[in-house]
Design brief:
- The chain is an alpha+beta fold and 445 residues long.
- The chain has a domain at 70-293 and 307-393: 6 Propeller (Neuraminidase).
- It is built from five helices and 29 strands.
- The longest helix is centred in the C-terminal third of the chain and has 40 residues, at 405-444.
């Protein structure tokens, strides 16, 4: 190359624009920020979809078609984040029970569906959930709730929570009390009623599915208990101001006409919602031994029998004849809830709050049925299930994935934060490894 040519090239290079090298580090940083923003946006969209879209495995119509006819021997507590019934109805109930294991720290109702899924019904303090129908489809209390569709009907007038709601065997109607709560009964020195005696309680039949009440009798319902006959045509109730003056009535459901009247002592009660015998000729009563009102018993008194002792009686509806069972001194507070293989099934609550469901076959020892839950008191089972289904199924626990929608959002954000932390740590470890390798290479040189 000649000297002139070299000078010409130098001059041209001085006049030529400088080459701009791309800033690869900044470009890579922008790409990482975009990817991070896309990841966060994706998580937000997935969380929103989880909150607003229905569960792919749980709809009322699907659960209504489920036909698992086995009752579990044991049912565990729900998770604190358990899905609510209002957000995802799950069909007829296999059982319901009360629990304190919920986020609001109040007593809530657990509804276990036929597919073994768990749902929570949160209640306001003092709110009354009600009674489960024999087929497990309805809850009747402050409102009529269809467990298949999730629809709730407010009753007008509202039935009172002071007295039990009792279902007919076909689950098409129930008897309840509409009380006159605005009048406080007052009595004179001789026990006579001195305020308005005409303000009595309405005993009503609530129709399903429209929820309309029909008055069948008007009386004082302070001692109210009830039971439908097996065919649903007759209704046995106890009425009266309290246990001292209670009276047993047998009423024609269609007309409201009183067919039979019989006085009851303060020790006697209709045994429960399933108190009619299977042939419809007898009513089962419970007889409180020695202490008709357990709260008034003094266990320390030597002449007082122990409280909460009972035996059964059979009342012939036509003749009024009462026959006592041979066994005496059964312990607990009973309620006759079903008949299984021709024998009565009782839910018995003991003085410590523990519960057992027992079958009382004739001439044999009581049989404790394998039906328990981890909640409060006795679980409530559909009468049809107690009478027809298989018992002693495997223990049942809820799935942790049957969660409220917000729980999935929390889990998504936690997973995103964990993934970001892992990526950051891996990068930090990678830079340290590169630094160590470079230092090792320079030392060898």
């Amino acid at each position: 190359m000649t000297t002139a040519l070299r000078r010409a090239l130098v001059d041209l290079s001085g006049e030529a624009p400088s080459v701009r090298m791309p800033d690869l580090w900044r470009r890579g940083r922008r790409i990482r920020r975009r990817r991070r923003a896309v990841g966060i946006l994706t998580c937000l969209l997935v969380g929103a979809a989880a909150m607003w879209l229905p569960s792919p495995t749980a709809t009322g119509s699907q659960f209504a078609a489920t036909d698992d006819r086995t009752l579990p021997a044991w049912v565990a507590q729900p998770y604190l984040w358990q899905q609510t019934f209002g957000a995802d109805p799950h069909g007829p109930a296999k059982l319901v029970f009360e629990t304190g294991h919920s986020l609001d720290l109040e007593t809530s109702l657990v509804v276990v569906g036929r597919d073994d899924s768990f749902r929570l019904i949160y209640r306001d303090p003092g709110e009354w959930t009600g009674s489960l129908s024999p087929d497990g489809r309805y809850l009747l209390g402050g409102s009529l709730v269809d467990l298949v569709t999730g629809q709730s009907r407010t009753l007008s007038p509202a039935v009172s929570s002071q007295w039990p709601v009792v279902w007919s065997p076909d689950s098409r109607s129930a008897v309840a009390v509409v009380g006159q709560d605005d009048v406080v009964p007052t009595t004179g020195p001789d026990g006579e009623r001195i305020n308005d005696p005409t303000r009595l309680d309405n005993i009503v039949i609530v129709s399903v599915p429209d929820g309309s009440p029909r008055v069948v009798h008007v009386a004082e319902a302070g001692a109210f208990r009830a039971a439908f006959s097996p065919d649903g045509s007759r209704l046995a109730i106890t009425v009266g101001r309290d246990a001292q003056d209670q009276e047993l009535l047998v009423i024609d459901v269609a007309t409201g006409a009183v067919q039979r009247r019989a006085p009851l002592s303060e020790q006697q009660q209709i045994a429960g919602a399933a108190a009619w015998s299977l042939d419809g000729n007898h009513l089962v009563l419970t007889f409180a031994e020695g202490c008709p009102a357990p709260t008034s018993c003094d266990e320390s008194a030597p002449d007082r029998p122990a409280p909460h002792r009972f035996h059964l009686q059979h009342l012939d509806v036509d003749t009024g004849t009462v026959t006592d069972e041979a066994d005496r001194g059964r312990s607990g507070q009973p309620s006759l809830i079903a008949w299984r293989q021709g024998a009565p099934v009782l839910s018995v609550t003991d003085t410590d709050g523990s519960c057992a469901i027992v079958r009382l076959p004739d001439g044999r020892s009581p049989e404790t049925l394998p039906l328990r839950s981890a909640g409060y008191g006795c679980p409530s089972y559909p009468r049809d299930a107690l009478e027809q289904w298989t018992l002693d199924g495997p223990p049942l626990a809820p799935s942790p994935w049957q969660a409220q929608n917000w729980a999935y959002v929390v889990v998504g954000f936690a997973a995103l934060a964990g993934a970001a932390l892992v990526v950051r740590l891996r990068r930090r470890w990678g830079r340290r490894s590169v630094a160590r390798s470079s230092l090792g290479g320079s030392s060898t040189r």
